[in-house]
């Protein structure tokens, strides 16, 4: 019995050491970066405007959650092709979740899902408004990030938070989800 | 239950023998590993040999950044050490001679094989750089 107890103690010690090894490994492979919030918003606005054909982005704001791997994004866009039809400036306001990924020294952002949307188009143009939303959801942007180390390649961002006007994000250990853009409703 | 003093002292001496041989083998391989592949910290070397993590070695980098791979490695490492522990346990408290001999052989050869493989990976990695 005494020897069995010794064996159990050894197994427990082994599990503890494995856990410490994992903790140290997680610390070693996690990379931390930060980007100015206003600069990120400016770059996003510029690059998203380039990739959208039927939408003119008016304003955009990123909203990081306290803990999470997604970046909230609210944007207001004008829809010039409908303005004449409805007799006033047509617009849509979307609230999205963005995902971030490190790839070849670039930061790639793409909408993961839609939280809410509103527009001032009449009911008969609702399908066109939905198509506009889908266009935004299909878009993605990439931006160079000088400080990304060679190791930071092809990895999803696992933590995003905001502090002192900076967006801090890190890429660490992750569970492969295999779902690159899903473009779904965030509530599903 | 009364304990036979000579039996108990035999067990104690075999336990000390297991600890001594393990320590010698582990540190011998670790010294070779340290010589062929400089680690940033001694703790990294220790955890590399013990848990296959913290290696920072190309050949052992298959753990990558994915939790499933890391946990799979954890399982392999735990099972390997468990086999060695059970074998060493048989050597220490085995009631028959053949159990002690088999346990001792598995424990020593297993430790040599496990640590040898890590050292081999470190040597290969050292040659590549």
| Dominant shape of chain B | elongated
Note the run of SSEs of chain A as H and E. HEHEEHEEHEEEEE
Beta strands of chain B, count: 0
Shape of chain A: elongated
Order of helices and strands of chain B, N to C?
Answer: HHHH
What level of helicity do the residues of chain B show?
over 70%
Provide mean pLDDT of chain A, rounded. 85
Structural class category of chain A: alpha+beta
Question: If you compute it from the alpha carbons, what radius of gyration of chain B comes out, rounded to the nearest whole angstrom?
Answer: 17 Å
Largest sheet of chain A: 7 strands, mixed
Low-confidence stretches of chain B: none
Q: From the alpha-carbon coordinates, what is the Rg of chain A to the nearest angstrom?
A: 22 Å
Compute the separation of the termini of chain B in Å: 61 Å
End-to-end span of chain A in angstroms? Answer: 54 Å
Biggest interface found:
A-B, 23 and 27 residues
Give the tally of β-strands of chain A. 10
Task: Reconstruct the topology from this structure.
The complex is a heterodimer of chains A (188) and B (129).
Chain A: H1 2-29, E1 31-36, H2 37-51, E2 56-64, E3 70-78, H3 80-86, E4 91-103, E5 106-119, H4 126-138, E6 141-144, E7 155-156, E8 159-163, E9 166-171, E10 184-185
Parallel strand pairs in A: 5-10
Antiparallel strand pairs in A: 1-9, 2-3, 3-4, 4-5, 4-7, 5-6, 8-9
Chain B: H1 5-36, H2 42-51, H3 67-93, H4 97-128
Could you write a compact summary of the structure shown?
The complex is a heterodimer of chains A (188) and B (129). Chain A is α+β, with helices and mostly antiparallel strands.
